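Friendly challenge for the regulars: who can give me the structure tokens for this chain first? No prize, just bragging rights.
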Amino acid sequence: MAARYSQYVVSKQRRNRYALILAGGRGTRFWPRSRKASAKQVLNLTGAGPLIRLTVERLLPLVPAGNVLVLTSIELRESVRRLLPEVPAAQILAEPVGRNTAPAIGLGAKILLDRDPQAVMGVFPADHHIGRPAAFRRLVSAAWREAARGRMVLLGIEPRRPDTGYGYIEFPKNSLKPGSLEPAPVVRFREKPDLATARRYLASGKYLWNAGIFFWPAALYLERLRECLPGTYDRIAALPTFGARRFAQALAESFPHCDNISVDYAVLEKTAGVVGFAAGDIGWSDLGSFEAVYELAEKDAAGNACRGELLALDAGGNYADAPGKLVALLGVENLVIVDTADALLVARRGDAQRVGELVKALRGRGLSRLH
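First reply, four minutes later:
Bragging rights claimed.
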């Protein structure tokens, strides 16, 4: 394993930038469109293309394809490789099991550090929407430069509403300048709040949503992982060099025993000196449910959105996903309708966040073919 981060002078040159794409989630709130073998990140939910494809395309002006590493699931690995032909196939790696973001980022950092002791990594979810990619890239470039100075950096989103579904990041009062290329110091991380607390956060002007986008030298992250999760660090550090003959077997044996915990709880909340950029208007959405897709979709005069052909009479505020067929709506409002070859979802738009409960129910009934 590499020596401590303090022994490195981290290069600011582009060749030392690496992008780690986290693509291992299931996206159960997009059932029945999202399944184990065709999860959210490989789907074309917005009409612009598969989400992971769009994620990598946004980054390629900043980092060469050979410096992209993708961590995904065993079920999705081949689909991801087909969608990302410019990324070396060996760098699209399947985790043996999901262990949340702290171990996944540690694995990515170890792989990158084996290749380049001066690697400065950006960590990106595979399934977000960015409506203004040029503005996004300006912020990402600034964040990478800041990380190259030996800091842990995050990109946060200015809250648009008192949402209880996001973690929040607190900053000093009057320090946030959305869109600025100067970072602000993080005060603390806050867990997902109740509605009253979320309203206070929004009114204070001191908080950003945690978008799960991070930047740091790979060596620095592993040093912090060693201090915060020593057991997980030891397992990752003991892996053979990436590409060695025994790497895959060692990973399969060791990774399931890593702690199952997010990077926020495990590392960032325990680290002083983290700084953040307020993203401003980059057109960000985490596409967390069909409701989020509806918000981005083009709508008719009654607020209906449809992927497919639509006939709506006395109907409004509906979202339908049924490519290749006519969807006829009569006298209904605020529904989500999603039609696939073997399943049909009909739900209130206000319950879109609960769609994942159906996947749990399918598992409980032994209907594995449907999830």
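The domain at 10-285 is CATH 3.90.550.10 (Spore Coat Polysaccharide Biosynthesis Protein SpsA; Chain A). The longest helix spans residues 101-115. Your move, everyone else.
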